[in-house]
TrEMBL record:
Belongs to the short-chain dehydrogenases/reductases (SDR) family. This is (+)-cis,trans-nepetalactol synthase NEPS2-like. It comes from the Eukaryota. It holds the Pfam family adh_short_C2. NCBIfam families: PRK07231.1. SUPFAM superfamilies: NAD(P)-binding Rossmann-fold domains (SSF51735). InterPro entries: NAD(P)-bd_dom_sf, Sc_DH/Rdtase_CS, SDR_fam.
Length: 263
């Protein structure tokens, strides 16, 4: 799902990016897309070390580095950003994408498991805040007019009859992005989020208890008004746009890529 053809443009020429959750799914697809769009380097950050190293090997170690990072640990996030600047001299793009979801997607507020709730909030909300904080500091200190993009969800624009912890965590991401965009605008740092609809990533396949990609595609089609299947590439396209100068006057935006689901 994540192999993308080279693109003809060079809109991210010379830029250095971090992609958290970059070892698989949307993160991996976006890391490849960023390189294809001319970035000088991308740092893959994840806790899936073997998969992360595999992505680096396929992209090429001359333009890609893997760094283990658990975004729930602020010190690891701080070290990730510091190491990136040390290796490549700057940070232009932070794609804060690492996220989790409870396998029990049918859970309502009446039977909410607060221990699982804490884990989801730690990654999806607290982890996002840590990534925005330390990326923004590095960009400001380096005099970089950078772009920070967070992954929210189409469910962050509406309520949902189940999956309470996940939906709540993604609503918080939009609040973070809108506030940070105002706070960092004077430094020329843009902060936006991309909100995917249902995409057949390894994460969603586990949550929906689907083993075959073809079966997952049938599920995904039910959540889109447009013909076809929403894929990782469509989200990667949106992230690349938000990371580039094509969106130089766009900040505080929630860019929904869902095939019309919330409509």
């Amino acid at each position: 799902m994540t192999n993308l053809p080279p693109t003809a443009n060079n809109k991210l020429h010379g830029k250095v990016a971090i992609v958290t959750g970059g070892a698989s799914g949307i993160g991996e697809a976006t890391a490849r897309h960023i390189i294809n769009d001319g970035a000088r380097a991308v740092v893959i950050a994840d806790v899936q070390d073997e998969k992360g190293q595999s992505v680096v090997a396929s992209i090429g170690s001359d333009r890609c580095t893997y760094i283990h990072c658990d975004v729930t640990d602020e010190n690891q996030v701080k070290s990730l950003v510091k190491s990136t600047v040390s290796i490549y001299g700057r940070l232009d793009i932070m794609f804060s994408n690492a996220g989790i979801a409870t396998v029990t997607r049918n859970q309502t507020v009446l039977d909410l498991d607060l221990s699982e709730f804490d884990k989801v909030i730690a990654v999806n909300t607290r982890g996002m805040a840590a990534c925005v904080k330390h990326a923004a500091r590095a960009m400001k200190e380096g005099g970089v007019r950078g772009s920070i993009i967070c992954t929210a969800s189409a469910l962050a624009s509406r309520g949902y009859k189940t999956w309470t912890d996940y939906v709540m965590s993604k609503h918080a991401v939009i609040g973070l992005v809108r506030s940070a965009s105002l706070q960092l605008a004077g430094d020329g740092i843009r902060v936006n989020c991309v909100s995917p609809g249902l995409v057949g990533t390894p994460l969603t396949m586990r949550v929906w208890e689907v083993k075959e990609e073809e079966e997952m595609e049938k599920v995904v089609e039910k959540f889109s008004s447009l013909r076809g299947v929403l894929g990782e590439k469509h989200v990667a396209d949106a992230v690349s746009f938000l990371a580039s100068e094509e969106s130089e006057f766009v900040t505080g935006l929630d860019l929904v890529v869902d095939g019309g689901f919330i409509a």
